[in-house]
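Quiz preparation item.
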C-alpha cells in the first residue's frame, strides 16, 4: 500500500528459493509445492472415501472405546509418513466421527457444508493470512469488509453500519454485550462510576434465548442476576407486554437495562421474537436492541422467507452465524453494528501492530474492531460460496430444510405415539414419545432412553431438551438431503426404543433405568 506522502523505492527482487531440504520437507514453501499437492490430495481422498462410505451418521463409539486408542499414541515418535498417519487417523477419528453430511443426523445446529466453502477453507489455511492488520492480510481485509457490507445491506442496518467476523455466535453475542455495556457505562457517568454502574446493569432476553447471553454477562462482570428472562407466549416468542413491564420495573428499581436481546431463531424452537414490536419498545425506552440471528440469518438469502426477519433492520447490533444456516464450515460468524463508532470499545493501539497513526494514514485494520488479534480469514469461505453458488442458491437450501421441518411437524401431529410442541418458523421440531396407560409415568425416562439407544446404534442422531421441566426430543433439520421418509423412519426407531423401554420397565424386567 502506498502511504500518503511516502515514496517507495523499488529494490531488486530476491532469487528463486532453493528446493526444500529433507528437514524442511514439511514446511510449506515455494520448494515444497509438489509435496503439498500430494499430501493434500491424499487427505482429500481419505475424507471423500469416508464420506462416500458413510451409511449412518455415527458408529456409536463410546469414550471408553476411543480413549485408549488415542491415549496409546506416542506423540514423540512420529510416523514420518503421510499415508501411515492417515491410516492412524482413520482409526482414531475419521471412522467414528459424527457426520453432519448424513441425512439422519438430525441433532444440533450443525449444517452439512458447501463445497465452495471447503475450497475456501483449503485456500485460507494454506495462505494463512491473519485478519488483524493490513500488513498480514492485504486483500483479505478488503474481502472481509465487502462481506460485512454485503451482510449489513441484507440486514438493512444503514450507511453507518459496520461489523467484523468472529469465531461464532457466542463470541458475536459477547462482543455485542461488551459494546452495549460500554455505551451504558458511558451514559451513566463513565469510568469513575463504573463499579456502581456495572452492578445495576440488566439484560433482558426471552426464556428461550441462547445461554451465551448469560455467559457474556458473567464474563463482562455483571451481577449474577443481570440477565432477566422475559416470558414467552404459546409459540415460545418473547412476550412484548412482559418486556415492557420488565423495562418499567427495572426503571422503578433504579436498574439500567443495558440491552434487550431478541432472538431470530431460538435454538430449541426455531421461533423468531416479534422484532418490530420489540424494536418499538426499545426505541421508546432508549434501550440497545441486539438481535441474535445466529440461526435465523439464513433467511437473509431466502428467496421466499426474508420477511420473517422484518424489524431486524432496527437493531443496534446483530449476530449472524454463517456456520449454521449459510452451510459454511466452522467457524464463520459476524457481529454487525448499526453505528460503526461503537466498535471503538474493542479498540486498543499497540505500537508494534496497529499504532494510532495507522488510522490517520487510513490503513484498514480489522483488529481495531475485533476482540481477537490473530484471526482466521473465515470470510474467504463465504466469498467463494457467493462467487460460485450465489446467495439465492444458499437461501434455497435453507428454504428446503424449513419445508422439511414443516413436513416433520405435520407427521408428528398425525402420529398418536408422539406429542409435538410449538411449530417452528425455521427447521427444528420438538416432540416426545408419549406412552398411554401406566407407562405414562415413565415418559421422561423413555424419551431419554430412546435418544441414547438411537445414538448407541448410530442409526440416527437426535437432540434432547427440556420443555417446562419435561424431557423432550428435538430434530434440527439442516440437511436438504434428509427426506420425509428418513424422518418417518427415525420416528419409528424412536418409538421402538421408547416402547421397548416402557414395556420392559412396566414388566419389572429392567433394573437399571437408563443404560
Ligand atoms: C440462537 C443462538 N445464538 C448463539 C449461538 C452460539 O453460537 P456458536 O455455537 O456459534 O457460538 C447459538 C448456537 O447454537 C444459537 O442457537
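Solution:
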Amino acid at each position: 500500500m502506498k502511504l500518503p506522502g511516502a515514496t517507495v523505492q523499488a529494490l531488486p527482487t530476491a532469487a528463486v528459493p532453493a528446493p526444500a531440504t529433507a528437514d524442511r520437507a514439511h514446511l510449506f514453501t515455494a520448494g515444497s509445492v509438489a509435496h503439498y499437492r500430494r499430501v493434500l490430495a491424499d487427505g482429500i481422498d481419505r475424507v471423500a472415501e469416508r464420506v462416500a462410505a458413510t451409511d449412518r451418521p455415527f458408529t456409536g463409539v463410546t469414550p471408553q472405546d476411543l480413549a485408549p486408542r488415542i491415549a496409546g499414541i506416542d506423540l514423540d515418535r512420529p510416523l514420518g509418513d503421510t499415508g501411515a498417519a492417515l491410516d492412524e487417523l482413520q482409526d482414531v477419528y475419521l471412522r467414528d466421527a459424527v457426520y453432519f453430511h448424513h441425512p439422519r443426523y438430525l441433532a444440533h445446529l450443525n449444517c452439512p457444508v458447501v463445497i465452495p466453502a471447503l475450497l475456501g477453507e483449503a485456500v485460507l489455511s494454506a495462505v494463512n493470512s491473519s485478519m488483524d492488520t493490513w500488513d498480514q492480510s492485504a486483500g483479505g481485509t478488503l474481502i472481509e469488509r465487502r462481506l460485512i457490507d454485503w451482510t449489513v445491506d441484507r440486514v438493512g442496518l444503514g450507511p453507518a453500519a459496520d461489523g467484523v467476523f468472529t469465531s461464532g455466535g457466542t463470541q458475536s453475542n459477547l462482543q455485542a454485550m461488551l459494546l452495549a455495556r460500554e455505551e451504558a457505562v458511558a451514559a451513566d457517568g463513565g469510568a469513575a462510576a463504573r463499579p456502581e454502574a456495572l452492578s445495576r446493569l440488566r439484560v433482558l432476553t426471552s426464556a428461550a434465548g441462547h445461554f451465551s447471553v448469560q455467559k457474556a454477562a458473567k464474563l463482562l462482570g455483571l451481577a449474577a442476576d443481570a440477565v432477566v428472562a422475559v416470558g414467552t407466549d404459546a409459540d415460545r416468542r418473547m412476550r412484548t407486554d412482559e418486556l415492557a413491564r420488565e423495562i418499567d420495573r427495572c426503571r422503578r428499581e433504579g436498574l439500567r437495562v443495558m440491552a434487550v436481546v431478541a432472538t431470530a431463531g431460538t435454538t430449541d424452537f426455531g421461533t423468531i421474537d416479534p422484532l418490530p414490536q420489540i424494536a418499538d419498545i426499545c426505541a421508546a425506552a432508549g434501550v440497545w436492541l441486539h438481535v441474535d440471528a445466529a440461526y435465523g440469518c439464513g433467511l437473509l438469502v431466502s428467496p421466499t422467507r426474508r420477511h420473517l426477519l422484518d424489524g431486524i433492520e432496527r437493531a443496534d447490533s446483530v449476530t449472524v452465524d454463517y456456520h449454521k444456516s449459510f452451510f459454511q464450515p466452522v467457524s464463520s460468524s459476524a457481529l454487525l453494528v448499526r453505528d460503526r463508532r461503537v466498535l471503538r470499545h474493542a479498540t486498543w493501539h499497540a505500537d508494534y501492530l496497529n499504532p494510532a497513526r495507522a488510522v490517520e494514514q487510513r490503513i484498514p485494520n480489522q483488529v481495531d474492531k475485533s476482540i481477537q488479534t490473530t484471526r482466521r480469514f473465515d470470510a474467504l469461505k463465504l466469498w467463494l460460496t457467493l462467487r460460485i453458488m450465489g446467495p439465492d442458491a444458499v437461501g434455497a437450501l435453507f428454504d428446503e430444510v424449513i419445508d422439511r421441518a414443516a413436513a416433520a411437524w405435520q407427521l408428528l401431529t398425525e402420529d398418536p405415539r408422539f406429542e409435538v410442541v410449538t411449530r417452528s418458523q425455521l427447521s427444528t421440531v420438538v416432540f416426545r414419545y408419549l406412552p398411554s396407560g401406566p407407562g405414562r409415568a415413565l415418559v421422561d425416562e423413555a424419551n431419554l432412553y430412546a435418544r441414547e439407544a438411537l445414538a448407541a446404534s448410530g442409526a440416527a442422531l437426535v437432540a434432547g431438551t427440556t420443555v417446562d421441566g419435561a424431557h423432550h426430543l428435538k430434530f434440527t433439520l439442516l440437511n436438504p438431503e434428509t427426506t420425509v421418509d428418513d424422518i418417518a423412519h427415525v420416528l419409528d426407531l424412536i418409538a421402538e426404543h421408547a416402547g421397548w423401554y416402557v414395556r420392559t420397565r412396566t414388566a419389572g424386567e429392567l433394573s437399571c433405568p437408563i443404560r
